[in-house]
Amino acid sequence: MTMTITSDQVERIVWNQHHDPFEVLGPHMVENDGQQAWIVRAYQPNADAVWVVLPEQRAEYPMQATHHPHFFECTIKGVELSNYQFRLQEGEHERFIYDPYAFRSPYLTDFDVHLFAEGNHHRIYEKMGAHLTEMNGVSGVYFAVWAPNARSASVLGDFNSWDGRKHQMRKLGGGIWDLFIPEIGVDARYKYEIKNQDGHIYEKSDPYGFQQEARPKTASIVTNLETYTWNDDDWMAQRRHTEPLTQPIAVYECHLGSWLHAASSEPALLPNGEPEPVVVVSELKPGARFLTYRELAAKLIPYVKDLGFTHIELLPIAEHPFDGSWGYQVVGHYACTSRYGTPQDFMYFVDQCHAQGIGVIVDWVPGHFPKDGHGLAFFDGTHLYEHADPRKGEHKEWGTLVFNYARNEVRNYLVANALFWFDKYHIDGIRVDAVASMLYLDYCREPGEWLVNQYGGRENIEAADFLRQMNHTVFSYFPGVLSIAEESTSWPMVSWPTYVGGLGFNLKWNMGWMHDMLDYFHMDPWFRQFHQNNLTFSIWYNHSENFMLALSHDEIVHGKSNMLGKIPGDEWQKFANLRCLYAYMYTHPGKKTLFMSMEFGQWNEWNVWSDLDWQVLQFEPHQKLKHFLGALNQLYRSEPALYTQDFGQDGFEWVDCSDNRHSVVSFIRRAKDSDEFVVTVCNFTPQPHSHYRVGVPQQGFYTELFNSDSREYGGSNMGNLGGKWTEEWAYHNQPYSIDLCLPPLGTLVLKIDREKTEKVLNAFNHQ
């Protein structure tokens, strides 16, 4: 047989060193004795003999070993060569396979590669990663991975015994490697074998993989995200035409892995009734397991709806290897974690939230990623996703790496990832973690441990540009959603639109308000008179951003104590203080976020390895606090004055903020495009005040809409017998005033009853 290939070419394939194995393997048209013929080559490391099989012609051609005992080729003349197969003899076993190298057309187009290289391929996740597809009538999976500095790349999997020699990939433009592997499908486990220029091998999970094995395993899993049938068309249509900032937003922040667990002996059921594999975690209490997404849909959603929250915010549910990171050390940015089930299970959870009128916000982590060997770190043997210089590329405090936002492909990876969660999972918002760590080059770094920008400053200009690009793109595709920044500094215009120079978020956590409030409520009430500024300072800057008031998971861990433990006094005073704080929070301008367990007054800090302390709900104070929060959410959602003008000066007016001697504040909240308003009066001491006069803008009867000291919430039941009439006594620069009884550690919300007022005034005028 005449050899058609050199030993050097064969060696490059055998040692997996070829940048384009299609140049050697598969079918090649050649001239043979003056006639056109096909040369078919194959490298099958486990095969003793190989035949080319043409099923339509019912013909079979033996292949000969060439230069290497497992490298085979044969010449075929006079036939059309399409969709041929190999018959492999491997010891005593025989099997038939399609040749991956017969499928030459790349799934990615040149335009895809161009857009990706410039950082503007908004749906790159539909091309990169693993995708079920059909080529030449044969079904299989198309794989594509970005590894521009690799010497070679292969697909490893349970379909090839994790042997990187069997499915070697080719290098396209832009540093993308690809390969179509026939006859594999959903649930196939795979990784990429990346070999650097020195021959070192890295086994990597798929950066664009839609599913991963549950830790400690690290393989990606082929899945089809198009199999779920959504039932939320009405929700999605309404969202597109809704301005969220004029709507009530009360968020229940939740970590799915520690809200509640099930017994490991209790099987979870798949939709078809079959038992689902469960994830038992050794760090949990003995015999415990995670609830699945479907179980959480049945338990968590009704709980949140009953409490009156408008949204559930999930701590990161992208795949992460370490439970103790709470999800903030992500390795699979495109994979919802397998701890609780499949991607379709999570889709069901979101769908059920929408069916119950609840939005879903996901914590999104573009600020850093862990150093785990199967993740993004040193991906192709170089610092591909991260900066090479640790002064820009590493968060030493967290032990994580920082994305290189200056690289177009990295920005594309992250921007498309944000779009992905809205597109494929129908989420309603993202809360972007640790924005301050992205914006400042000296964040948590000592002098000499960071590099200045090109202008000599400490601002990370590339990160700011990335955030603008991400927000602009998200709102272009998905109007009506939320993009919330956890940003703790005075960086200007975080929640301003990008077209005026802002970062483009539509909400920002008000960290200053949170710190002021927790410091204030930590004080003995007698000392609060000297710190009235803690209560009032937030209004001075309230209109500079679109703020969300958040009491989050970060405030009840690491020795900070849970909410009740932060507050002085006996048990009654602790609960009264907490009710007063929540009521002030809900009447203060800004959207709201509370972390799970705060609604019923858990004493212990949040523990990621355990359930919430549900057992405390057997005690009346905790039951009544939970009831109080439900009533507070109902009040908030029913009064447009409390949410329609959170960010404009017309929505808030102090009545009196200077009564520090009594630690009392009073203010008015006004509705947008309406003359509706409510009056809030807060007494932050355990000393009740009778005949406390408060100015009001209109004459009439003011109904006591809400009293945090009500007996039904566990209070002393001091109040105003349903409401008070005004007196023609100008006070607090208002034309009228009302004489109130202020309960201890209590918040009152009052609203004029126009029907009753008009009826009585008309009767009086007729006399």
UniProtKB/TrEMBL annotation:
Full protein name: 1,4-alpha-glucan branching enzyme GlgB
Catalytic activity: Transfers a segment of a (1->4)-alpha-D-glucan chain to a primary hydroxy group in a similar glucan chain
Top-level EC class: transferase
Subunit (UniProt): Monomer.
InterPro entries: A-amylase/branching_C, Branching_enzy, GH, GH13_cat_dom, GlgB, GlgB_N, GlgB_N_E_set_prok, Glyco_hydro_13_N
EC numbers on record: 2.4.1.18
Lineage, opening ranks: Bacteria, Bacillati, Cyanobacteriota, Cyanophyceae, Leptolyngbyales
NCBIfam families assigned: branching_enzym (TIGR01515), PRK05402.1 (NF003811), PRK12313.1 (NF008967)
Keyword tags: Carbohydrate metabolism, Glycogen biosynthesis, Glycogen metabolism, Glycosyltransferase, Transferase
